[in-house]
Amino acid sequence: MTSSPLASDALVNTFFNWDLIAQTFPRLITEGLLNTLTIAAGAIVLGVAIALLAAMLLLSKRWWVRLPARLYVDVFRGLPVIITVMLVGVGLPAAGIRPFGTNPFGYAILAIGIISGAYTAEIFRSGIQSVDTGQLQAARSLGMGYLKAMRLVVVPQGIRRVLPAMAGQFVKDIKESSLVYLLGLAVGQRELYFIAQEEVARTYNSSPLIAAGLCYLALTIPLTYFVNYLDRRLREGPRPGSTPAPAEPDLPKTPVQAAGGESR
């Protein structure tokens, strides 16, 4: 059974009305794109900060230190995102807790950042635990304290190993910024999805959603490829023929040092 030409035309017009897409793009780019980036960037920064702290707590040998971090991670990974956004963006102001006044951006960043932190904490934990314990022992043998050794030696290696997973979480944060529409937005505060939704309600046509989807893809696909490229460069090292960083001059060794011992 073949579809009729009229049905095919209706399908194309519903999703690919190029005139309507062209009319929607200017608002998406001038207003929606900036607001989406603002929410996503704020949530990513907040999420990474929370995740680093939570990951360190999860790695503690003391159960009473691990317990709060484990509860935080399990709760906010288990709750649907929409519930967390409503609890933070609607529940806190209703309870008289208004750290951001009536500005929905602050509540959106806080909600998405809390969720992102729960997922990123597990990513960081797995990356840090994948680093050989000899790295920490070697750093401690050089006189570093535990926290300094973790900060300068172990954590950077662990984060480098989980860059692709972090990229996936950052892409998720960008997409989840669309839920800010639940909190109500004024003119000038609308993000990509909210603008597209307004146009769909006005025209009864889904083409503005396609335009918004293209904008999201323009953000998420380059981010994914950039992080994958960065991960590949870090694993492979400098390319052949590239100018290496200037090395420190070798100091002359004493006969004892040359034999593998220490001079006295």
Automatic annotation (TrEMBL):
<keyword id="KW-0029">Amino-acid transport</keyword>
<comment type="similarity">
    <text>Belongs to the binding-protein-dependent transport system permease family. HisMQ subfamily.</text>
</comment>
<keyword id="KW-0812">Transmembrane</keyword>
<dbReference type="Pfam" id="PF00528">
    <property type="entry name" value="BPD_transp_1"/>
</dbReference>
<dbReference type="InterPro" id="IPR043429">
    <property type="entry name" value="ArtM/GltK/GlnP/TcyL/YhdX-like"/>
</dbReference>
<keyword id="KW-0813">Transport</keyword>
<keyword id="KW-0472">Membrane</keyword>
<feature type="domain" description="ABC transmembrane type-1">
    <location>
        <begin position="33"/>
        <end position="227"/>
    </location>
</feature>
<protein>
    <submittedName>
        <fullName>Amino acid ABC transporter permease</fullName>
    </submittedName>
</protein>
<feature type="transmembrane region" description="Helical">
    <location>
        <begin position="208"/>
        <end position="230"/>
    </location>
</feature>
<dbReference type="InterPro" id="IPR010065">
    <property type="entry name" value="AA_ABC_transptr_permease_3TM"/>
</dbReference>
<keyword id="KW-1003">Cell membrane</keyword>
<dbReference type="InterPro" id="IPR000515">
    <property type="entry name" value="MetI-like"/>
</dbReference>
<dbReference type="InterPro" id="IPR035906">
    <property type="entry name" value="MetI-like_sf"/>
</dbReference>
<feature type="transmembrane region" description="Helical">
    <location>
        <begin position="71"/>
        <end position="92"/>
    </location>
</feature>
<feature type="transmembrane region" description="Helical">
    <location>
        <begin position="37"/>
        <end position="59"/>
    </location>
</feature>
<keyword id="KW-1133">Transmembrane helix</keyword>
<feature type="region of interest" description="Disordered">
    <location>
        <begin position="237"/>
        <end position="264"/>
    </location>
</feature>
